[in-house]
Amino acid sequence: MFLNTSKISFFKKVAAKLKSPAINKFINDIVVKELELRLNINYYDNPKDKDENTDKNIIWFCWYQGLENAPVLVKKCYNQILINKPADYDVILITDENYKDYLNLPDYIIEKYHSGIISKAHFSDILRFSLLAEYGGLWADSTIFTLKNINFIENKAFFTLKNASYDPYTTISYGLWTGYFIGFNNVFYIPCFVRDCFYKYWETENKLFDYYFIDYAILLAYKKIPQFRNLIKELDYYGNNRFFLKNKLNEAINQTDDLLLAADSVKIYKLSNKIKMKEFTENNKMTYYKKYIID
Questions:
Q1: Partner of 232 at 20 to 30 A CA spacing, among 149, 287, 290, 294?
Q2: Cross-strand partners of 137
Q3: Rounded-to-integer distance, Cα 224 and Cα 41, Å
Q4: pLDDT digits (tens, 9 = 90+) for 244-295
């Protein structure tokens, strides 16, 4: 076994119960050190030549079954990105049918995905960093919802929803990145490093050691690559309100929350498909879900 999944989970729960950032950091450091020793991934400042693929500005969006089969919320998120993207960006939808048009993944990755060893959730992690390593651009998860133009992503070597509002007892990213909204522009060695962590791991392993492997891989990149640390340090805090709308969707529209939404200068929100949504409250008041997703 690569890493002891049950022990990681146990000590994470201990850190959360004891409210101990120190224990959490200790666990993170052990996992990252183990990854570093076992995977032995090197990075290079310029691992690939710039080609015609990298001249395009792309936002990557994935729904395996195709948009026509997506839930209403996902369709709305996709349409909002089309509306709010920078003018010179293309939005490319990745599906089970077309991902091979963009990537030449190792055979063992594809085989383990089709056999169920690699879940759809983790396969999307592999896809995002393979696409970012090959083409650059920005990955937006299918439940990322935008309420204004996102032109501020332009001309940045690195972009993510860096935030100061994270749980110090369970965090892996320490608020420095979000894997569900992350982009790179002409710094291919960083996504290449994370991609290669996935490739090297699955070359020999048949079980995911932790659901948040993506964050551990990015944390390893953060520790090993000084330029990556500098890019994160230079980036503003764009993600402090990322869950605000998610927490309000089933609530009645009200002036206080309207003002808070209006005051948010970023307006990029992480929503969820796993929450049962309603268009009206028990008092027949229209909800924010009705206002923003349905109407």
A1: 149
A2: 184
A3: 10
A4: 999 999 999 999 999 999 999 999 999 999 999 999 999 999 999 999 999 8
- Predicted structure pTM score: 0.93
CB 250 within 8 A of CB 278: yes
Q: Which helix (H) or strand (E) holds 158?
A: strand 158-160
- The conformation of residue 236, written as its DSSP 8-state character, comes to -
202 closest CA partner among 119, 102, 108: 108
- Walk me through the domains of the chain, giving residue ranges and CATH numbers: 52-234 (3.90.550.20), 255-270+279-294 (no CATH)
Q: What are phi and psi of 173, to 5 degrees?
A: -85, -15
Computed from CA positions of residues 56, 59, 65, 67, in that sequence, does the dihedral angle turn out positive or negative?
negative
Give kind and range of the element (H or E) at residue 233: helix 226-234
User: For 204-225, how does the pLDDT look when each residue is reduced to its tens digit (9 = 90+)?
Assistant: 999 999 999 999 999 999 999 9
Measure the CA–CA gap between 268 and 139, rounded to whole angstroms: 13
For the four alpha carbons of 154, 155, 158 and 162, in that order, the dihedral sign comes to negative
